Amino acid sequence: MDGVAGEGAGAKAGDDRGDALRRAAGAAGLKTLGAGVSEAERHGPEAAIAVVGGGLAGLSLIDALLARGVSPEDLLLIDGGDPHRGSHAPATVLHPFAGRTMGPGKAHWQAFLKSWETLKRWCEREHEPLWRSAPMMRLLEGDKLSTKLEASWEEGRARYPEIVESWRVEGEASRRLLPGWQGGPALVYEPAAAVDLPGLCGALLKRAQSRGVRVVQGEVADLRGGEEGWAIGLAGGAPALRAARVVLATGAALGTLLGEADLRERPGEVGVWEAVGPLEDLNVMINSAANIFERPDGRVGVGSTYLKREGWQEREDDEADAELREKMNAALGGADPGRALQIWRGVRGIYGSDHRPLVGPVAGESALFVMAGFGSKGLTWAPAMGQVLAAHLLEGAAIWEVVDARRARRMRLRR
């Protein structure tokens, strides 16, 4: 399950998997590409696997399928380009402790290590700055959460993987890292990195297209399964697309297609500032009331605020700017960073308690799968789950137990 072939996977493996996918399409009553045009003329493109959603989750799966030797002509990516999805956030950080504990379990580490290696490789192969690594400094502010974090660090650090280093600072050691914190206590750890997520997703999409993956821009409005596979209806009345198997990687929009799931939308905001004044020459990335970090392009990302579900899209940027600056106040020693260059507002899909992603087959539906629910841990989980789901689709490999297959089984297609 863990072994992933590189982009140069042998032709024989690719041919075998391509043949298997085409047999699956044939069993579903679908013609394969090149077997005639009349069906395509009536229903649009055909594919063995259609991935709905071109954010980090969907693109991770496409990349993993290609890496395992799937022919690009057997893949279809459908994307509505939602500007509010998490993959469009202009400021994102990958680090091992995105939640409220510094003692995560074994499966978390398995996902983090796989995603760290994958994201770093993706970013470093591009000829543009998409990745900037730096230590993360988690400020201990004397509240209940800080006490819990330090206790979980003390209890869990002996089990950290070899690549993870962590230490506690206070006084002069703290002041050298972050002068504005004025010597206050903090936990410092690495590896951690700021990721240009929109830039990375654009690069992954461009690579997939250059290899021959068909990409259709549009919003999926209807899914209908039958003996001929899945008919995928797009908003606006375009001809239906057809595929033998469908994977829904639509993030917070999943509830428009699937019901009866514990789905909660989590709106939030991030801001971008020039690296001047108190934000100039940051030695570390800061994790406190707001994450503060230098982006790969040299500007500073700050996030996030959490918003109520009602009316979040109508919020004024001035209000967000003021809240984010207030959250930066303690870390920057009261210095004013000035106004933000950009405020981005978006929404993530949270399932259950935001501890486990939602990956697996949808009950009662033949060849329909879901890959979503990454919540606040998209960079930690999505690249790893792309590889896990690809292995499941192609080889029948087991889905990791940690993912919330139980909720996936409760989901039902909206009719």
From TrEMBL:
Residues spanning the signal sequence: none
Pfam families listed in its UniProt record: DAO
GO cellular component term, pick one: cytoplasm
GO function terms (MF aspect): oxidoreductase activity
Keywords associated with the record: Oxidoreductase
Keyword Nucleotide-binding annotated: no
Domain FAD dependent oxidoreductase, residue spans: 49-391
Gene3D superfamilies listed in its UniProt record: D-Amino Acid Oxidase, subunit A, domain 2, FAD/NAD(P)-binding domain
Protein's name in the database: FAD-binding oxidoreductase
Organism for this UniProt entry: Lujinxingia vulgaris
